[in-house]
């Protein structure tokens, strides 16, 4: 029997359009994430930085915002329905159907994002992601992801179906980042300016 974490991919495939409709405030308005996206972008030294967006969804508003600010996006999502929307909305970028847990692109990026996606992984899969981040990180690359504020599991819903979220505690995230060569640049638990998200921004040493 599938666990709640294992059901995430099918859930987003079934309800891709519903999820997209929840962000209908875009385009035309600055997304609530703008403050963190600008901090992330400021760490990218290249004039046209390569950014890897893990769990890119439909490309709105995160990828769209970064593309408008000169980034070259490679977006990865496990739902083909989401990637189809990315291709239609942001042609000229690189979009791939894939699972971040098994990613091996044989290239490095100036910035890596796992925004509102990483926290759908189980605790053990989250731990395994940090070497994946590291192998795809160019020198001085920025890494930004969202988590929960403490160790545990939180269940939401999407169209009435259980929606799994998990988090390690802050000390473990710091240890995993440090052990894979990243230093924490900024971290806020339940940021009220960003929809209550817990955000981690780090940079490769």
From TrEMBL:
Q: What class of enzyme is it?
A: transferase
Q: What is its EC number?
A: 2.1.-.-
Q: Where is the Methyltransferase domain?
A: 51-132
Q: Which residues form a coiled coil?
A: none
Q: What is this protein called?
A: Class I SAM-dependent methyltransferase
The answer to whether keyword Flavoprotein applies is: no
Q: Which InterPro entries match?
A: Methyltransf_25, SAM-dependent_MTases_sf
Q: Which Gene3D superfamilies match?
A: Vaccinia Virus protein VP39 (3.40.50.150)
GO terms under biological process: methylation
MF (Gene Ontology): methyltransferase activity
User: Keywords in UniProt for this one?
Assistant: Methyltransferase, Transferase
For whether the record's keyword set contains Transferase, the answer is yes
Please give the Pfam families that the UniProt record associates with this protein.
Answer: Methyltransf_25 (PF13649)
């Amino acid at each position: 029997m599938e666990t709640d974490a294992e059901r995430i991919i099918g859930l987003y495939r079934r309800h891709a359009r519903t999820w997209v409709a929840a962000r209908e405030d875009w385009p035309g308005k600055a997304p609530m994430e703008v403050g963190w996206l600008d901090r992330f972008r400021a760490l990218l030294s290249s004039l046209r930085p390569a950014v890897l967006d893990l769990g890119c969804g439909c490309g709105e508003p995160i990828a769209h915002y970064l593309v408008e600010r000169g980034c070259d996006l490679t977006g990865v999502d496990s739902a083909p329905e989401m990637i189809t929307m990315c291709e239609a909305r942001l042609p000229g970028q690189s979009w791939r159907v894939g699972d971040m847990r098994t990613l091996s692109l044989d290239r490095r990026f100036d910035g890596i994002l796992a925004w509102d996606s990483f926290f759908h992984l189980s605790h053990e899969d989250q731990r395994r992601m940090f070497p994946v981040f590291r192998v795809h990180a160019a020198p001085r690359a920025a890494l930004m992801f969202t988590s929960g504020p403490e160790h545990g599991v939180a269940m939401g819903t999407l169209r009435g179906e259980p929606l799994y979220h998990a988090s390690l505690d802050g000390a473990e995230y710091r240890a995993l980042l440090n052990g894979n060569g990243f230093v924490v640049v900024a971290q806020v638990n339940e940021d009220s300016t960003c929809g209550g998200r817990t955000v981690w921004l780090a940079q490769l040493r």
